[in-house]
């Protein structure tokens, strides 16, 4: 993949003004704050959310933003682990020196690859996965307490990842979590500024784009796999959200 093709999917650096806002709402962010006491505070920006702190006021930081596509291209277990990492807690603190050094090495490799004229999308994606796997390993050490509504957001996202192909009605998720559909949508609107239906539709679009690019499936077959009643309803849905028809998208990717 040419550099200009993935530039909109991945950003890393120290200049927040040139990084923030470049990626779409379908992106996730991590701010690494290297503190004077030699600890590392990691701030997470889940999908469709903002950082819980003003990262502009932090010192000695590195900001990483990436599109959801970069994790959805892998297996669902990995995607769920990432969703857990980003939605379970807003931040974590790593104090173990060897762990911090490991993270620094991977971050520096990401920065070097990103800035290289010969930067490779596959290499960046691989390094990002290494970084994420390190963070997943550390996720139970030093995390701050989450509030009840944040837990419900995480529950919804975890359920949605495994059921969005078959369950597109918010009532299923609300009943499973133990709240009313109205309350679930209130929580999601407060935390993510999106309703359950909007989040499910966003996930359907991401999955549709992934399958159109990575498989030989036809748009008609895909429509029924994603739970649509007809090819035409899927085409209208896809074009409304992406701007082109599924056939056109597949042809150009």
Q: How large a portion of the residues is in β-strands, by DSSP E?
A: 5-15%
Helix content: 55-70%
- Mean residue pLDDT: 83
Low-pLDDT stretches are none
Helix-strand sequence: HEHEEEHHEHHHHHHHHH
Cα distance spanning the termini = 11 Å
Global outline = globular
Per DSSP E runs of 2 or more residues, the count of β-strands stands at 5
Structural category is alpha+beta
Give the spatial strand order of the biggest sheet.
1-4-2-3-5
Return Rg in Å. Answer: 19 Å
Outline the structure in words.
With about 250 residues, this protein is of the alpha+beta class. It contains 13 helices and 5 strands. It has helices at about 5, 15-20, 70, 75-90, 95-115, 120-140, 150-165, 170-175, 180-190, 195-215, 220-225, 230-240, 245-250; strands spanning about 10-15, 25-35, 40-45, 60-65, 90-95. It has a 5-stranded antiparallel sheet with strand order 1-4-2-3-5. Strand 2 (about 25-35) and strand 3 (about 40-45) form a beta hairpin. Helix 4 runs antiparallel to helix 7 (about 150-165) and helix 5 runs antiparallel to helix 6 (about 120-140). It is globular. The model has no long low-confidence stretch (mean pLDDT about 85).
């Amino acid at each position: 993949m040419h550099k200009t093709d993935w530039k909109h999917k991945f950003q890393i650096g120290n200049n927040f003004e040139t990084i923030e806002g470049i990626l779409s709402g379908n992106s996730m962010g991590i701010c690494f704050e290297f503190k004077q006491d030699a600890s590392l505070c990691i701030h997470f920006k889940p999908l469709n959310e903002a950082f819980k702190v003003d990262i502009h006021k932090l010192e000695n930081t590195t900001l990483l933003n990436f599109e959801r596509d970069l994790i959805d291209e892998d297996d669902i277990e990995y995607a769920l682990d990432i969703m857990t990492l980003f939605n379970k807690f807003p931040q974590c603190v790593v104090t173990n020196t060897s762990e911090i050094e490991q993270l620094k090495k991977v971050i520096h490799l990401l920065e070097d690859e990103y800035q290289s004229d010969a930067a490779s999308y596959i290499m960046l994606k691989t390094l990002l996965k290494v970084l994420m796997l390190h963070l997943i390993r550390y996720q139970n050490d030093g995390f701050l307490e989450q509030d009840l509504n944040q837990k419900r957001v995480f529950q919804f996202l975890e359920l949605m990842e495994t059921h969005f192909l078959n369950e597109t009605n918010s009532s299923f998720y609300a009943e499973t979590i133990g709240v009313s559909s109205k309350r679930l949508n209130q929580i999601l609107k407060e935390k993510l500024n999106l309703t359950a239906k909007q989040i499910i539709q966003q996930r359907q679009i991401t999955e549709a784009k992934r399958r159109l690019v990575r498989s030989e499936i036809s748009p008609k077959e895909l429509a029924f796999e994603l739970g649509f009643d007809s090819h035409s309803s899927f085409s209208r849905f896809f074009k409304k959200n992406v701007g082109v028809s599924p056939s056109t998208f597949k042809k150009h990717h």
